[in-house]
Write a structure and sequence with these properties.
Radius of gyration of chain B: 19 Å
Number of domains of chain A: 1
Largest sheet of chain A: 7 strands, parallel
CATH topology of chain A: Rossmann fold
Helix content of chain A: 25-40%
CATH architecture of the largest domain in chain B: 3-Layer(aba) Sandwich
Largest sheet of chain B: 7 strands, mixed
Number of helices of chain A: 6
Oligomer: heterodimer
CATH architecture of chain A: 3-Layer(aba) Sandwich
CATH superfamily of the largest domain in chain B: Vaccinia Virus protein VP39
Structural class of chain A: alpha/beta
Structural class of chain B: alpha/beta
CATH topology of the largest domain in chain B: Rossmann fold
Strand content of chain B: 15-25%
CATH class of the largest domain in chain B: Alpha Beta
Chain lengths: ~190, ~270
């Protein structure tokens, strides 16, 4: 596999179905850690990780603070916490104020991944209803990481991918199926 | 000057000691503060020494005060059905809320204690580094606007514990003044006190049955986490119970001394 260290994905409205399908179709040998930051609807606090686990061929976990990032696992930002990737390869959580009206904030997760992994990370922005994540994806791109934006034409709610495209030029603009194919060919 | 050096200088020149905060996360927050103030670490330091108001604001920004009534309702519902049913059957029951912020979690717990029917036996202490939040906690008064989720969380918890209690049983809402105020019978119970975990002793004499330290240890390095765990262990009864944040674990060195039971940890 490539010398990437992780795949970091951000999404909001509509992204649950996309992520679900993506995880179901990833080839079993795909072993980069996947770190997902998804906004959740206020009234759905729990159950997300369980639903993802039903379909995913890999284990999906909501990490504890200071948990080590390992190959072959999928990390989902827990509700009501910001999730950061640290230089020492661990995840840290924080309950500080919302960012872009969101906690977890995709910008925080992606920007921390840009700092920690620099050009060794793949950042992906999916469908969503606000602009959180745009700055974070730009940070990944600025550090030489590989960036993918879901084609707004294929997005349930195109606001988030469009916001990313306004501030940066990703390596690829793809449909959800193409994103999965791309990852499977790494 | 880097963040580490800044914190050492801040300690010696302002008395605020954040040297043992988790370095990556505090560096991140300090960089944000510098950016917002358009200042380097050196410039920020000189401003802090000269400007008490700015110092208070920076302390506020470094420490995280986010909290809400019945934050993570599923946790409180589970605690009600488990931990709150296993409290000492007689005599005083002592609660300590570490890093209590504006007191909403202390009041959440007191509401459940009232629901369990033991409120008259409860001593509750809330401690925090930040004097501003301690004063808000003592008043028990919060903005009404933007806090409608308090009522939603409250209703969700009451529904799931089979209680018919109403929000108005515990709070006075004044829409005109934009306030939610804890009713006097409840706000009279807890004692809120300033405590700096780095240097101060525990500011009350009693041993404690239950300690809440939710989303506090995540901001500390290993050394300060150990210090706080030591402080907790010294104050806590042998059968004591500890509640951490939803995504926190007992720090490694102490994990053998506690048994996790759902959302709380029982001392062994």
């Amino acid at each position: 596999m490539s010398d990437y260290k992780a795949v970091v994905i951000g999404g909001s409205a509509g992204s649950f179905a996309v992520v679900l399908k993506m995880l179901a179709n990833l080839k079993p040998t795909f072993d980069l850690p996947i770190i997902i930051c998804m906004h959740r609807l206020k009234h759905i606090r729990s159950g997300l990780v369980e639903s993802l686990n039903v379909k995913s061929s890999k284990e999906v976990i909501e990490p504890y603070d200071k948990q080590r990032i390992e190959k072959g696992l999928i990390y989902l930002a827990p509700s009501n916490y910001h999730m950061f990737i640290e230089f020492d390869g661990t995840i840290s959580l924080s309950t500080e104020d919302m960012n872009n009206q969101s906690r977890p904030s995709i910008d925080y997760t992606l920007s921390s991944a840009a700092d920690a992994y620099r050009d060794k990370c793949i950042g992906i922005i999916l469908t969503g209803a606000n602009k959180d994540g745009a700055k974070g994806l730009k940070d990944i791109s600025d550090k030489g990481g590989f960036t993918i934006v879901q084609d707004p034409k294929t997005a349930d709610v195109p606001t988030m991918p469009k916001a990313a495209l306004e501030v940066m030029k990703p390596n690829l603009i793809l449909s959800p199926e193409q994103i999965t194919d791309y990852l499977n060919k790494l | 000057m880097d963040a580490k050096e800044f914190l050492v200088q801040m300690k010696s020149r302002t008395g605020y000691d954040f040297c043992d905060y988790s370095s990556l996360s505090i560096t991140r927050r300090l960089e944000k503060i510098c950016e917002e103030n358009g200042a380097t670490y050196e410039q920020l330091l000189s401003k802090l020494v000269a400007d008490k108001v700015l110092l208070a604001k920076v302390v506020e920004d470094i420490t995280v005060n986010t909290t809400e009534l019945f934050r993570d309702p599923e946790v409180w519902i589970s605690l009600y059905k488990t931990m709150y049913q296993r409290l000492p059957a007689s005599g005083p029951i002592t609660f300590w809320h570490i890093g209590c912020s504006v007191g909403l979690e202390t009041y959440s717990s007191l509401i459940l204690l009232k629901e369990v029917g033991v409120l008259d036996r409860v001593r509750a202490f809330g401690t925090d580094l930040n004097p501003r939040v301690i004063n808000v906690a003592k008043l028990g008064r919060y903005a009404y606007k933007f806090n409608s989720h308090f009522i939603k969380n409250f209703d969700e918890v009451m529904k799931n514990i089979g209680s018919s209690s109403k929000f108005e049983d515990y709070f006075d809402i004044d829409e005109k003044a934009d306030t939610i105020t804890v009713k006097p019978f409840l706000s009279a119970v807890p004692k809120f006190m300033q405590q700096n975990l780095v240097q101060d002793k525990v500011p009350f004499p009693y041993k404690v049955d239950v300690v809440f330290v939710r989303n506090v240890l995540i901001y500390f390095n290993d050394a300060l986490q150990a210090k706080v765990m030591q402080m907790i262990n010294t104050k806590m009864y042998d059968e004591g119970m500890l509640v951490l944040g939803k995504q926190e674990l007992i720090p490694n060195r102490y994990s053998g001394q506690y048994k996790q039971l759902g959302f709380y940890h029982k001392r062994m």
